[in-house]
Amino acid sequence: MANNVRAWSTTAASNGTADGDINAAEGCPPSAVNDAERQMMAKLKNTLQTIDYLDHGYTATFATTTTFASPGDLTAIYLSRRRLKFDCSSTLYGTIASSSYVASNTTVTMVMDSGTTLSSSLSAVYVGIIAPTNVALPANFDKDAYATTAGTTTAYTAAFNPKNVALTNGVHVRVKLDQTCGATPTLAVDGLTAKTIVKPGNVAVASGDLTANSILDLTYDSTLDKWVIQGAPSAAGGLVWSHITADPAPAVVGNGYSCDTSGGAFTLTLPAAPTAGAVVAFTDGAGTFNSNPLTIGRASLKIMGLSEDMIVNTQNFGGQLVYDSATNGWRLA
Q1: pTM (2 decimals)?
Q2: DSSP state of 209
Q3: Is 24 helix (H, G, I), strand (E, B) or coil?
Q4: Is 296 exposed, middle or buried (0-12, 13-18, 19+ CB in 10 A)?
C-alpha cells in the first residue's frame, strides 16, 4: 500500500480515481465501499504516525546548496522559520529563511542544519506541520532548553538548533550566560545582528546585573529593536535566578541564588552598598543546608538587626532579604 494521501484532492469530486488503492469512482460496486473505507483508515493511520512532516506532493527542484524551487505560488506554505525535511541522498533538515514567487515558481531559501547542504540528489520535500504563525504549540514550549553564550561580557553570542533565521517581533530565546555581564550588553543569535539586552520597561542593564550561569528568557521587541529580559528586576518586580556552588562575591541586587551546598558549605556575601528596597533572594538548591549550611555574609551591615552573619542550616529553606537602612540593615521578607 503506497501512502499517497498527498494525491488526494481538497475537492471531493476530484477524488474518484486520485488514489489507485481506493475505488471511489461514481457508481462503484457496493462491495468496493468497505474496501475503500479500510484503505482510507490504514492510510490515515500511517500518516498520523509520521505527522511531524507531511508530503504534500510539491515538486522540489534543486537550485543551489541552500535553495530549491517548486511550481506555483506556495509562499503561504513556505513561510519564514518553518521547518522542512528533504530526501537528498540522505534525510536532511533545515529552516526556511525566505520564499518568493516569480515567473510561475516559488523559490525557497533555506538555512540548513549544521554541516548539511542541498544537492542535485534532491527528490522530495516534506513540510513541518507547525507553522511559525498561529502555531499549535503553547508559548515557551520546551522552555527548559537553552543555549550557552560565548563572546564577551558586553557582546554575547549564542547558537541554536534549529537556527533563528530572522529577528521578528516576539521571537523568544533562552540563554545561559557564560560570564557576568558588563554595562549595556548585546546578544547576537545565530550570526544575526547583535541587539542590546534590556530589562522590562526598557531599563538598561548595568555591569554585574546579570551573573555567570544565569538562565535568561529573552523576547525580541521590534519596536525597541532590543532583547527584553522576561522576569528581570524592574519597577514591577521579578528576579534573575542562577545556580551557584560558591560565593558570587558579592551577590547582585535583584538576583536570586539557588545555593547548592552539596559539595560543601559556602558563603553568599551580600552587596556592600545597597539602597533602600534592594532585594537578594536565596534558596536551598540541593536540599543540603542541614548538612552543609549556607552563610549569608553581611558585608559589615546588619541582618535582622544583628551585627553578625546569618547561618542557614534548615533543609530546603529559602527567602528574600530586603535592605531597609543602615540602622535596620537587611530584613527577611
Answers
A1: 0.45
A2: S
A3: coil
A4: buried
**99 SS3 class:** strand
* Residue 138 included in any domain: no
Residues 290 and 319 in one domain: yes
Distance CA 204, CA 232 (A): 11
Q: Are residues 151 and 111 in the same domain?
A: no
Q: What is the pLDDT of residues 294-332, one digit of tens each?
A: 999 999 999 999 999 999 999 999 889 999 899 999 999
Q: 99 and 172 share a domain?
A: no
Q: What is the DSSP letter of 78?
A: S
Residue 129 near residue 52, CB atoms below 8 Å:
yes
134 within domain boundaries:
no
Residues 233 and 253: beta-carbon distance below 8 Å = yes
Average pLDDT value for residue range 80-101: 90
Same domain, yes or no: 120 and 160: no
pLDDT score recorded for residue 19: 75
pLDDT mean over 41-50: 72
**Residue scoring higher pLDDT (283 or 238):** 283
pLDDT (tens digit, 9 = 90+) per residue, 225-277? 999 887 644 333 457 778 899 998 898 888 888 899 999 999 999 999 888 88
End-to-end C-alpha distance for the chain, whole angstroms: 67
**229 phi/psi in degrees, rounded to 5:** -70, 130
Residues 273 and 221 in one domain: no
Tell me which amino acid residue 87 is. Answer: D
Which structural domain range is residue 76 located in?
A: 54-128
As a whole number of angstroms, the distance between CA 290 and CA 309 comes to 17
**221 contacts 190 by C-beta, under 8 angstroms:** no
User: Residue 194: which of 229, 231, 167, 232 has the closest Cα?
Assistant: 167
